[in-house]
Amino acid sequence: MKATKKYNFYAGPAILPESVLHQAASAVTNFDNMGLSILEISHRSPNFTKVMQDAQLLAKELTGAGDEFEALFLTGGASSQFFMTAMNLLNTDETAAYINTGTWSTKAIKEAKLFGNIVLAASSEDDGYRYIPKQLSNLGNAKYLHYTSNNTIYGTQYHQLPDTTLPLIGDLSSDIFSRPVDLNRHAVIYAGAQKNMGPAGTTLVLVRKDMLGRVKHQIPTLLDYRTHINKGSMFNTPPVYAVYVSMLTMRWVAQQGGPEAMASHNSKKAAMLYKEIDNNPLFTGYARKEDRSKMNVTFNINDETLENAFVEACSEAGIVGIKGHRSVGGFRASIYNAMPVEGVEKLVDVMQTFSKQHGA
Fold first, then answer.
1. How far apart (Å, rounded) are the C-alpha atoms in residues 93 and 215?
2. Is 195 a catalytic residue?
3. What are the residue ranges of helices labelled H in 231-302?
4. What pTM was estimated for this model as a whole?
5. Do 180 and 191 have their domain in common?
6. Tens digits of per-residue pLDDT, 272-318?
7. N or C: lower Cβ tally within 10 Å for the chain?
8. Could you tell me if 109 and 85 are in contact, meaning their C-beta atoms sit under 8 angstroms apart?
9. Which of the following is catalytic: 195, 224, 269, 294?
10. Domain count of the chain?
11. For this structure, is 171 an active site residue?
């Protein structure tokens, strides 16, 4: 019996386009008419070399990266970039500034302190990370400013880049390719694939090459961006399948019209869901309205005794992954690029029906 496809609102590993899933599934049995699965081909084969090159080219095209940037597909998740960025760019006698907007930026700050002097430019911790701080300080001697563009746990998102002339390092893990990005303002952007680009297993890094080679300390070979630039992201065996599916997803984004079209698509979904949250007396949004994420919509139910019943109502409607992160509770609807409008419509319908049933 064939299972009914569900509406996947998980924050990650997250929803992928249906056409990408079909192509990825086909490649598991016969990739590129080789008579081999993509899971068993050599990463040195011309067939996969082309996949890697296409993935790098697509990443640069979708972000508008020029020749001064290199696109890398690495392992270790975005968490590995918390220390690799500082290790490659920051001397121990230099200072870097960080903005703390939640769990992931907190972890980035902790790792960066191993390599230099880290100052806090701003933080929203005082209000449970419900907002994006606008006023920055302590930037005077900083070499760069690190920020997290979208916060999956708390549901906040930068709608404008931080107001500074410093080179930016952006963790774009959960909103990569969801809208245009001004790469000229950045020294590095990085993104774990599993939230909006592909399956778990690879991490995209776009790095400005002229920022490298300036640190005095030695960098382990595998952790040096220049190693991966020189070897075309193939210094060691890359995560073949994760890169392939990410390439398919980026190709799909391009076919939809690129980040500009995705921005329009995502704004429509977000507006629809936030309207219901604001109009429905049973629910309350978590993040401040001006900083709400268009990727991860966080909200609470005003009667906490109904939480489990609401999750069950969603499940009966084919909606999964709606529970909020364990650190904040409530609910979270992740509406990444591949989430169709009808998925959000279904969730809104469940919210309305549930509210009527419970007298709200």
1. 10
2. yes
3. 240-256, 258-279
4. 0.96
5. yes
6. 999 999 999 999 999 999 999 999 999 999 999 999 999 999 999 99
7. N
8. no
9. 195
10. 2
11. yes
Q: Do 246 and 73 touch, CB atoms closer than 8 A?
A: yes
Q: Span 142-169, mean pLDDT?
A: 98
Catalytic residue among 171, 175, 224, 291: 171
* Among the listed residues 68, 65, 34, the one whose alpha carbon sits nearest the alpha carbon of residue 51: 34
Of the residues 256, 272, 297, the one at which a domain ends: 256
Residue 14 has φ and ψ, to the nearest 5°, of -115, 180
Q: What is the pLDDT of residue 3?
A: 64
| Residues 243 and 314 both lie in one domain | no
Could you give the CA distance from residue 360 to residue 355 in angstroms, rounded to a whole number? 5
Query: Sign of the C-alpha dihedral, residues 85, 86, 90, 96?
Result: positive
Q: How far apart are CA 234 and CA 182, in angstroms?
A: 28
Q: Output phi, psi for 182, to 5 deg.
A: -85, 90
Q: Is residue 240 part of a domain?
A: yes
**358 is written with which tokens?**
């419970």
Nearest Cα to Cα of residue 13 among 201, 247, 243: 201
209 given a catalytic annotation: no
Distance CA 69, CA 60 (A): 8
Burial of 58 (0-12, 13-18, 19+ CB in 10 A): buried
User: 304 in helix, strand or coil?
Assistant: helix
Q: What is the CATH number of the domain that holds 141?
A: 3.40.640.10
In this prediction, residue 327 carries a pLDDT of 85
Catalytic residue among 104, 143, 269, 291: 104
